[in-house]
Design goal:
With 789 residues, the chain is of the alpha+beta class. Helix content is 48%, strand content 18%. Strands 3-4-12-8-10-9 form a six-stranded mixed beta barrel. It has a six-stranded mixed barrel with strand order 18-19-24-21-23-22. The protein starts with a helix and ends with a helix.
């Protein structure tokens, strides 16, 4: 069972890690697949404009089969009379053919459905397999039916194959439509509208670095040709500063799943520790078994069996045990892999489809694990097999059996060392989770409720206009009247764990763009969040559409933009769109960690929702007890939006620590398992020693020895093993902690409490493991031994 648990945990951890980070996309020629993105600043990436896509199609010397796509999360989809939210994917006409995807039923979107030159398309839709199963019960008659997307009718023409995730490794598009549908052609095709993502294949014989080099001059000419003549100088400079990068997409597009990779590596490392401890434990047991059966081995050799025959039997026993453990371990992995993935991706914003079926890499890893298990616990007993003749074994059987030598204690010391490593690492992660739960982000997070809004079908997310400003005030008044809650603001949900980034520059002295965390908020947010206004003012309801664009920045950002002087009254720009030009700073607040208390940027930029059409009504934040039904009715009654879901800020913050929770929970379970195995190994070794030294202990008692002397003999041997393991384990833990530091928050790698608790718990368990054999040694009775003899 211990081997099965170790093999199962290791296989499950690698299975999830492989599915998220290492598998090739199930598309045609994945190794040559690349993703293209526009860069703004050092890390902020966006899509391309439609004219840019048309121009990049000329890059046939570097790239082939260029396709465009755009994801829209939570689109309104009407299936019959029911309103649903679906992940919508818009694609160019050759998207499916370039990926080599075949339909499960019907047909897929093709060149006849989408004309990029005129930016026009047919109102057709392809359903994802999972969405088709859930909403249509897998009925083939769904083909040809109408489905409404954002209030507009589309005809279902086909079903994507099962498990199709487009260019994502983990997310299935529920509905796919042509790129040009449901958009204002004139607005969507504007040079400054950066929303289309691109992917393609490298041309034959072209490496990634060569493709980047060949695209660089083409990209410069594209920007020069497409920059509108009516752009102001600074906006023109921003447009011309846009960068182009090419990324490998063999393992899927970059979509935020990378934050799960390190916790999974940690989980895999802990699983390997548990497996190693289990193998050492099994090796110790088999070694003791070999020593105990020395007399039997002597009989077999006397009857003609060779030393090679004895070793062959031991190898066969090890192989059978490893095979049984591996089979049971694979069954455990089949259950554990979906459980780990489901827990980790529970808050992923989309329909998760993770391919956990074993591939060639995984099968090789499992085979390697089984081989290592056989070598670790099977080879040692074979190596320690007696090389004496049968006569020697008969004459010295008892002494040979008792002589385990140094191997047994070394194995147990190794188990103790690995248990120390697992316990200390797990303790640090548990302490990290506690610190994140109680960390101060710099604003008042108490009793906060977040209601996420969704525009009703056919209503755009944002329209910056006087009418929209009036609606916002009406919505606030309606909510206050219906719920009795006075503190209400619009804002991006805080503490989500992911910064919403923008790249900005100082308008009067353009320099290298600065990546900042960006949040649209409504008037009154300073008081609502309990922020400290260092200088300037808060937003007001008069700062609406048609008024000069304004922003509030954090102190660190103000000092970075305008060192040594006040930032209030200065101007910033971000991006090539009109909404990001000539923005006046009207206030500076004390630094906060708005999105993430651990890795969140102190460089914060707040803009009024009244002036930012792409981010109007991100969510409603309320403070105090909120009657959910009254809130939903108040929002729905005004006819523009409805409440998608209501959560407390504490729940949002807890969901943002999902990877830390996984590491802490798994670390605690695995460390407890490792400690238990180490204690079992120590207990088994000492019990074996006591059983073999019973004659010696009885003679000592007969000669006047005291029970405490016998207890001291056993405890001293156990203490030596524990001390050796603790020293080596602590040294290994110090090295491993350095690798773990990026997962820690609020504590140092040398956190005394975590180290002390881990060592104390392990020591207490091992003391108990030593005490039981010591107590047995103290009960050695000479009379009982004489009767047995």
């Amino acid at each position: 069972m211990t081997l099965a648990a170790g093999i199962g945990a290791t296989t499950a951890a690698f299975s999830v890690l492989n599915a998220i980070a290492f598998r090739d996309l199930p598309v045609k020629n994945p190794k040559a697949l690349v993703e293209l993105s526009v860069t703004m600043g050092s890390s902020n990436t966006v899509g391309f404009s439609v004219p840019m896509v048309r121009a990049l199609e000329r890059s046939h010397d570097a790239l082939l089969n260029l396709v465009g796509f755009a994801w829209q999360a939570r689109a309104n989809v009407e299936v019959g009379d029911e309103l649903k939210q679906a992940d919508l994917l818009r694609v160019t006409g050759d998207f499916y053919s370039v990926l080599g995807t075949k339909p499960a039923i019907g047909r897929l979107i093709g060149p006849q459905d989408m004309n990029l030159a005129s930016f026009s398309s047919e109102p057709v839709a392809v359903l994802g397999w999972g969405f088709w199963q859930r909403e249509y019960g897998g009925d083939v008659a769904a083909i040809g039916k109408m489905i409404r997307i954002e209030g507009k009718p589309f005809t279902i023409i086909g079903i994507a194959p099962r498990g199709f995730t487009a260019l994502s490794m983990i997310q299935e598009p529920n509905v796919t439509v042509p790129l040009a549908t449901n958009e204002d052609p004139q607005e969507a095709a504007a040079p400054g509208m950066l929303w289309v993502h691109l992917a393609g294949h490298l041309a034959r014989g072209i490496r990634l670095e060569q493709a980047r080099a060949r695209l660089a001059p083409l990209w410069r000419s594209i920007k020069t040709d497409l920059v509108p003549a009516n752009y102001a100088p600074q906006r023109r400079a921003n447009f011309l500063s846009l960068g182009l990068n090419v990324w490998p997409a063999q393992n899927g597009m970059r979509d935020g799943r990378s934050r799960f990779v390190q916790p999974l590596w940690f989980l895999l490392a802990l699983a390997v520790i548990v497996l190693t401890v289990a193998c050492m434990n099994a090796a110790g047991l088999m070694l003791a078994r070999t020593a105990q059966h020395t007399h039997d081995i002597g009989i077999r050799m006397a009857l003609g069996a060779s030393s090679l025959d004895i070793r062959r039997q031991a190898v066969a026993e090890a192989i059978v045990l490893a095979a049984l453990g591996s089979s049971l371990g694979l069954l455990i992995a089949q259950w554990a892999s979906p459980a780990i993935a489901g827990f980790m991706l529970q808050e992923w914003p989309g329909s998760v489809v993770l391919r956990l079926t074993p591939d060639l890499h995984e099968l090789v890893i499992v085979a390697t694990i089984v081989l290592c298990v056989c070598l670790l616990f099977g080879a040692l007993p074979v190596w320690r097999m007696p090389r004496r003749s049968s006569t020697d074994l008969f004459q010295g059987g008892a002494r040979v059996a008792a002589r385990i030598g140094r191997v047994g204690p070394i194995l147990v010391a190794g188990q103790v060392a690995l248990a120390i490593v697992a316990s200390i690492d797990a303790g640090l992660l548990v302490r990290t989770l506690q610190h994140r739960a109680t960390a101060d982000p710099g604003f008042n997070r108490a009793s906060m409720t977040v209601a996420e809004l969704q525009p009703r079908p056919g209503v755009p997310f944002a329209v910056a206009s006087p009418a929209a400003n009036v609606y916002d005030r009406q919505l606030f008044d309606s909510i206050r009247a219906a719920t009795g809650v006075r503190d209400v603001v619009f804002s991006q949900p805080p503490l989500t764990g992911v910064d919403w980034l923008r790249s900005i520059v100082a308008a009067d002295a353009p320099s290298v763009p600065i990546d900042v965390a960006y949040a649209p908020v409504s008037p009154g947010f300073v008081n609502f969040f309990g922020l400290t206004l260092q200088e300037g003012r808060d937003f007001t309801w008069s700062d609406g559409s048609g008024r000069p664009r304004i922003a509030i920045v954090s102190q660190t950002l103000a000092d970075r933009l305008y060192p040594g002087r006040s930032a209030v009254g200065e101007y910033i720009n971000f991006g090539p769109t009109p909404a990001g030009q000539h923005i006046e700073i009207v206030g500076v607040i004390k630094d906060i960690k708005f999105y993430d208390v651990k890795n969140g940027s102190p460089l914060m930029l707040f803009v009024p929702t009244l002036q930012n059409p792409e981010a109007s009504q991100p969510a409603i934040l309320l403070r105090g007890a909120v009657p959910a039904a009254a809130l939903r009715q108040a929002v729905f009654s005004l006819g523009r939006s409805y409440v998608l879901r209501i959560r407390s800020l504490d729940d949002i913050a807890k969901a943002a620590t999902r990877q830390e929770q996984l590491a802490a929970i798994a670390g605690s379970i695995f460390s407890a398992f490792a400690v238990g195995l180490a204690a079992l190994g120590l207990y088994g070794l000492l019990m074996y020693v006591v059983s073999r030294r019973t004659r010696e202990f009885a003679i000592r008692v007969a000669l006047g020895g005291r029970a405490w002397t016998l207890i001291n003999l056993v405890l001293r041997q156990g203490a030596g093993i524990v001390a050796t393991g603790t020293v080596f384990g602590s040294l290994v833990a110090i090295v491993s902690i350095r690798w773990l530091e990026s997962l820690l928050y609020g504590i140092k790698a040398s956190d005394a409490l975590a180290l002390g608790i881990a060592t104390l718990v392990l020591t207490a368990v091992l003391v108990i493991a030593c005490a039981i054999p010591a107590a047995r040694a103290a009960r050695a009775d000479p009379l009982t031994l004489m009767r047995a003899e």
